[in-house]
Amino acid sequence: MTGFGINTNLLETNILNLAVVIGVLVVVGKDVLTSSLDERKTKIVESLNDVERRFQEAQAKLETAKANLATSQEKAVEIQTQSKVTADEARKQSAQRAEAEMARLQGTKNSTLAVDAQKRIRTMRTLLMTGALEKAFKKVKQERSGLSTQKRLIDNLLREVF
């Protein structure tokens, strides 16, 4: 065959057609496939860089959180220690106030007892003085009545004699 004509052998024409189509696809599709793969590669690299950046940020936040936790724990220990000291001081002050109040009450009790004892002593003195005065008055009355009797006798004797 010399020239241009129609080939009726289907197997040869199909293989030839496939080779031409594959060649055109390789030439034309190579650029499309390469650019698509490059875009995909770029997106994957950007995603990996973004993931790496977020991982670094997460690491930094984790370190900050660890530092904050350590600081918080130190403050908690400090607050606990301070609260124990404050509680001890409050207990001591309360005990001192209680002792002072007890001493004040003891002093009040002692002064009340002293005042009560003085009242009783005054009452006893008054009773003794009243009793002594009554006894003295009785004696004086008796002596006066005895004197008046003596006086009457003397008067009577003097009348008889004079």
Q: Which key terms come to mind for this protein?
A:
94% helix; single chain; mainly alpha; 1 helix; 162 residues; rod-shaped
Describe how the helices and strands are arranged.
Elements lengths: L9 H152 L1
Strand content: under 5%
Give the SSE string: H
> Shape, please?
rod-shaped
Please outline the major beta sheet.
Answer: none
Which range best describes the helical content: under 10%, 10-25%, 25-40%, 40-55%, 55-70% or over 70%? over 70%
Ranges where pLDDT stays below 50 over 5 or more residues in a row are none
Total of helices: 1
Radius of gyration: 66 Å
Quaternary organisation of the protein chains: single chain
Average pLDDT, rounded to a whole number, is 86
Number of DSSP strand runs: 0
Structural class: mainly alpha
**End-to-end Cα distance:** 223 Å
Describe the 3D structure.
The chain has 162 residues and is mainly α. It has a domain of 113 residues. 94% of the residues lie in helices and 0% in strands. It is built from one helix and no strands. The longest helix has 152 residues. The relative contact order is 0.02.
